[in-house]
């Protein structure tokens, strides 16, 4: 594969991921959102936001290990920006896709984040506590490897939401 073709494929994959993230944001719960404020104790800016978050991750064969790890780090960083509990009402879920889908954390849950699990793959400092809660423990390796079917991913997300999972 020549360099121009490789760059085109990479750009296309990034565009597909950006589209899916945009679609995911459109599927956020219709509940009213509060204005985000910075919490001095955590320095996070999303603690007052009530939302249902869905993460769909591309596990197709064209996604390299490095790209997959970058996507996981992205999910870890975003998920760390929210407090998940019955008081905030924030919940999250995750699934993976290639030519089909694989539910990682479904149904949507308040156990998406685990404050005892920390770190990023890129910094080689992921720490988990072994309680089988949180995105870092429940999603750390790539299971897919087939083709890329974004239609399957977006339809699966819509189905999850339509059936009361978000």
What does this structure look like?
By secondary structure, the protein is an alpha+beta fold. The protein has a single domain, classed as 3-Layer(aba) Sandwich (Rossmann fold), CATH 3.40.50. 34% of the residues lie in helices and 14% in strands. It has four helices and three strands. It has a three-stranded mixed sheet, sandwiched between helices. A hairpin with a 3-residue loop joins strand 2 (91-97) and strand 3 (101-109). Helix 1 (3-26) packs parallel to helix 4. The longest helix is centred in the N-terminal third of the chain and has 24 residues, at 3-26. The radius of gyration is 16 Å and the shape is flat.
Main beta sheet: strand number and arrangement? Answer: 3 strands, mixed
* Count of folded domains: 1
What's the CATH first level? Alpha Beta
Strand order of the largest sheet: 1-2-3
């Amino acid at each position: 594969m020549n360099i121009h073709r490789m760059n085109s494929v990479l750009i296309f994959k990034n565009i597909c991921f950006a589209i899916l993230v945009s679609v995911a944001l459109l599927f956020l719960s219709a509940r009213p959102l509060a204005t985000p404020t910075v919490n001095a104790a955590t320095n996070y800016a999303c603690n007052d936001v009530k939302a249902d978050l869905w993460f769909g991750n591309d596990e197709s064969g064209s996604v390299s290990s490095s790209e997959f790890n970058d996507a996981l780090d992205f999910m870890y960083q975003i998920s760390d920006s929210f407090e998940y509990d019955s008081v905030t009402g924030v919940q999250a879920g995750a699934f993976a896709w290639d030519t089909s889908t694989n539910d990682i954390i479904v149904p949507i849950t308040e156990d998406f984040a685990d404050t005892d699990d920390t770190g990023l793959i890129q910094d080689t400092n992921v720490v988990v506590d072994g309680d089988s809660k949180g995105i870092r423990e429940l999603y750390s390796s790539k299971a897919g490897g087939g083709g890329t079917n974004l239609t399957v991913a977006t339809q699966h997300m819509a189905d999850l939401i339509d059936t009361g999972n978000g």
